[in-house]
């Protein structure tokens, strides 16, 4: 089953990647196993986001750049505002990377 | 700081991952439970440092993580067959007695001496740690092309396709049979007590570890254009890239997708037109590697190699072979056309890059990022609307998760 490696760029994904890198560099872990861990992370993260998270967010802003390549949308927004039930954030610049949700369910 | 719910979700994910990979770690010659625990501990520690999860972590069950796990063994202690690090192979193949005598000698200094030159993290001490089985293998001249430490293990993904192989010298019984990797076949059996260092150096000299390792890093960067790993690099450290716009590529240059970001392909295009421009006049271009944390060293040296090797006429347009660099093509085409006409004309090369450059100069913490899946993206005139789902946002140093998101952007 294919996984989105997208979430590896998140904080949690980067922490895992760094940890795995260190361990592989030290030779404690084999690269194949590290990759298996990452793939499992992809699955677990996707599943957790589907089942455990219930919040809704709305995003508004000025679209500076849009790109669609390999079924991945990349937007760069300026002066964006993120609103959710709990909080509201404003940023001057943010990048949004989105993969096609239909690809996973095929 | 993360909210409690985000933190909880992360903790749940970590535990879920660890539990699911536990089998892999324990079965069949895996590194063992302690390595798994260490992984979890380090992961959680990093998360706490990043502020993504709130400690202390309450656990209802399962292995406790101690953030502060001792990562490496003390090298000065003679080899003892500890369960965690010992592969069954080593045990089965090599009776303990003969091991201990020659072991201490190559262990401390010798065994890993060639490594720092080849591996990217030269910790002779820690590099030592991994596998007493490793040291065993080197003792008996297992020509795995060096220890199954980092560099070779990457290539072993393709080459040997499994855990580090231990091949005994001639005459040694091996109940643990594996098909020999190509590395193994190259090396003549050597005397156990002699020339251990040289043998290892020979084995490792030919392999280019740097790009392979970094290719692993690249893969983890999240954009996978090709499924290949390191096997496609023909030369050590040189990743050929093909940009179709206006550059003649000799046929032997295939696109290796080691570096998958569009930035890099743009760079390849820019650099190649730079090459062709040399025939006329030097065109200074500001495109440069835009490295991710894991791309860093990789992009630069490859581009420099590229300049030395590629020598094409930029006027001839080539059809781009791979589909995924077409995004980079238009930029390169533009530059080529401008070069053709008049080098004094403004190249407008800064138009699109400003924001990106600004971003690169900032601390990573301020790079706000949303990673999600999209259900629908539509546009009416300049009004864009999209529906996203299952996303992670990193905004203002905070992690926010969402199940659904709606976006309305004005272009």
Automatic annotation (TrEMBL), chain A:
Positions of the Transcription initiation factor IIA gamma subunit N-terminal domain: 4-49
Keywords assigned by UniProt, alphabetized: Nucleus, Transcription, Transcription regulation
GO CC list: transcription factor TFIIA complex
GO biological process, one term: transcription initiation at RNA polymerase II promoter
Domain Transcription initiation factor IIA gamma subunit C-terminal: 60-101
Main localization category: nucleus
InterPro entries, alphabetized: TFIIA_a-hlx, TFIIA_b-brl, TFIIA_gsu, TFIIA_gsu_C, TFIIA_gsu_N
A Pfam match: TFIIA_gamma_C
UniProt subcellular location: Nucleus
Function: TFIIA is a component of the transcription machinery of RNA polymerase II and plays an important role in transcriptional activation.
Subunit description: TFIIA is a heterodimer of the large unprocessed subunit 1 and a small subunit gamma. It was originally believed to be a heterotrimer of an alpha, a beta and a gamma subunit.
Family: Belongs to the TFIIA subunit 2 family.
Name of the molecule in the record: Transcription initiation factor IIA subunit 2
From TrEMBL, chain B:
Extent of Pro residues compositional bias: 170-182
Stretches with biased composition (Acidic residues): 338-362
Keywords from the named record: Nucleus, Transcription
This protein's GO CC annotations: transcription factor TFIIA complex
Entry keyword Transcription: yes
GO biological process: transcription initiation at RNA polymerase II promoter
Entry keyword S-adenosyl-L-methionine: no
Disordered: annotated span: 144-188, 329-362
Protein name, per record: Uncharacterized protein
Upper classification of the organism: Eukaryota, Viridiplantae, Streptophyta, Embryophyta, Tracheophyta
